[in-house]
Design goal:
GO terms for molecular function: monooxygenase activity; oxidoreductase activity, acting on the CH-CH group of donors. The protein has 495 residues and is α+β, with helices and mostly antiparallel strands. The chain has 18 helices and 16 strands. The strands form five sheets. The protein has a six-stranded mixed β-sheet with strand order 4-3-12-13-9-8, with no helix packed on it. It has a four-stranded mixed β-sheet with strand order 7-10-11-14. The protein has a two-stranded antiparallel sheet with strand order 1-2. Helix 4 crosses helix 10 and helix 10 packs antiparallel against helix 15. The protein binds flavin-adenine dinucleotide.
């Protein structure tokens, strides 16, 4: 695609898709099962379709002047307007610019989509950040010898030029964790090598948004159990590839609900998928590592941009919690109570702390060996650990601020019912607002903290990019403390 856009002063070539063009790409015969039934297309399941509509609206926003700066940038090579999702940050200023898109997609989904269209591209950019390392690596699988670095560069260009969306699944299906990794029947691995590529079989798991995206980007996370050579792979294939089956978890949102009742859950969801690979062909040019266990240790460095995305999204959501909390104080008239002010203070502390970690990670950013500007991993990991440890308490505090209003919600139809609506309107107004407006606020907070959608999101926040024990382990392994040790030795007059 190489069209002209009229939204800027001077028509400029662009490589952007409209929402309708994006939706057309999903009508590709992909194999999806929901509630045990094969569906003809992603548009057949209301929760998936609503989620696609939300993502499509992000594509349309790329053409609107008010969102152009957050969602698009100029490709330095071609001069065309491209999505910021595939932007390669070279400077600290570039990081701040790229963050605008994370903030935009986070606000658009109220932080409920952890894998919006700009998340998986951040992993491809992470591979690009270590191009010299991947250039030096050789395939250890006989008969297939891709140039990993060329493939990475070509893939980032392909994603950028096609305004591509991708999902990612790095983790493996849950089964007996005490067994040897290589003995798991679910482990995704190379079955055979053939002309032009390899065949892989096995499964990936919780590939959030994969039913609603173009591609799946995958690897097998290293972890403490040894990964056999035939499972050491980084690659990406189209979701509609022959042999891929997507098995959806049950839906948790309220597509089609009146936005009054469910302002967020009516937007649909990014559904998590169990992804079966049955003899799937991966072309040689889509392989970014093959057979080399040392490349699997690059999970941390390669995913640094994705983890920066995760923390930024949580900061945006934390700010929504502050806004919602302030509104609760306003409409309930509880803002004069010192204990209530203290509870809002907790929400503010959380939001400010997450922002501080993000700014610190960007301020301490350093160029990688591939000359990509990478946020500081120690700050990010500490921030991510703080964010997930405190998330349940923050949800609890926001719920507590709401009191009975969070559950005593009746819905638009009750307010419009001639027999009971007037009672609700007369007996339940807030401070300076009608009963309906008070309920709208409570409905928003319900969707964000207490609904089935919120339950899935809370689980997601806790483990989607490593649970707390693993983050502590990463801090131990990755944050240097020699300087502090020397300081103590000096003060303690130790040798
Ligand atoms: C809703 C949701 C969406 C997700 N979306 C994605 C996605 O899009 N892409 C993706 O790649 N992943 C995704 N994840 C998966 C996430 O990466 C994993 O859940 C996470 O890596 C933990 O692995 P596991 O669930 O297999 O836990 P298991 O390995 O089964 O372990 C269970 C628990 O044991 C503990 N544990 C296990 N091993 C260790 C260890 N070595 N050190 C410390 N503690 C340990 C942890 O508490 C862990 O939660 C998602 C998860 C959820 C819940």
């Amino acid at each position: 695609m190489n069209a002209q856009t009229q939204t800027r002063d001077v028509p400029v070539a662009h490589k952007l898709k409209t929402g309708a063009e994006f939706k057309a790409t999903l009508d590709d015969g992909r194999a999806i099962w929901v509630n045990g039934k094969r569906i003809a297309s992603v548009f057949e399941e209301p929760a998936l379709a609503a989620g696609v509509d939300l993502v499509a609206s992000m594509f349309d926003d790329q053409f609107k002047p008010e969102f152009a700066d957050a969602t698009t940038c100029i490709d330095p090579d071609s001069g065309a307007i491209v999505s910021r999702a595939w932007q390669v940050p070279r400077t600290i200023e570039d990081l701040a610019d790229r963050r605008k898109l994370i903030e935009y997609t986070s606000l658009k989904t109220a932080g409920t989509f952890g894998r919006p269209p700009d998340l998986a591209p951040a992993i491809a950019v992470g591979l690009l950040a270590y191009l010299p390392t991947f250039k030096a690596k050789k395939s250890l699988i006989d008969g297939c010898a891709p140039d990993f670095a060329e493939n990475i560069e070509r893939y980032v260009a392909f994603g950028r030029d096609n305004n591509l969306t991708a999902s990612e699944s790095l983790t493996g299906p849950q089964n007996d964790r005490s067994s040897a990794k290589g003995s798991e029947s679910s482990l995704l691995k190379v079955k055979n090598v053939e002309k032009g590529g390899i065949r892989i079989s096995g499964a990936k798991t919780v590939g959030s948004i994969s039913a609603q995206a173009n591609e799946i980007f995958f690897t097998n996370l290293g972890g403490i159990r040894e990964t056999p050579a035939e499972a050491c792979i980084w690659a990406s294939v189209p979701i509609a590839s022959d042999g891929i089956k997507l098995i959806s978890r049950e839906m948790v949102s309220h597509p089609g609900a009146d936005p009054f009742d469910h302002p967020i859950a009516s937007l649909g969801e990014e559904a998590d998928q169990f992804i079966v690979f049955d003899n799937v062909f991966v072309p040689t040019d889509r392989i970014f590592n093959l057979g080399d266990p040392t490349a699997m240790q690059y999970y941390g460095p390669v995913c640094v941009f994705a983890h920066w995305h995760v923390l930024t999204r949580l900061a945006v959501k934390a700010e929504l919690f502050v806004g919602a909390g302030q509104l609760v104080l306003d409409v309930l008239g509880t803002g004069h109570i010192p204990a209530v002010q203290g509870m809002l203070g907790e929400l503010i502390e959380y939001a400010q702390t997450l922002r501080a970690f993000i700014y610190a990670a960007e301020a301490k950013a350093k160029p990688t060996e591939g000359e990509v500007m990478a946020p500081d991993v120690g700050m990010l990991t500490a921030g991510r650990l703080y964010s997930i440890q405190h998330y349940p308490r923050i949800i609890h505090t926001l719920q507590e601020l709401c009191g009975q209003g969070l559950v005593m919600r009746f819905g638009k139809a009750a307010f419009e019912n001639p027999d009971i609506g007037h009672h609700l309107k007369d007996l339940l107004p807030g401070k300076g607002v009608s009963a309906e407006v008070k309920e709208q606020l409570m409905n928003f907070i319900w969707d964000m903290t207490s609904s089935s959608l919120a339950g899935r999101v809370a689980l997601f926040e806790n483990v989607n990019a490593s649970p707390a024990p693993r983050l502590r382990e990463r801090l131990y392994n990755e944050v240097k403390r020699d300087r502090f040790v020397e300081q103590v030795k000096t003060l303690a007059r130790m040798p």
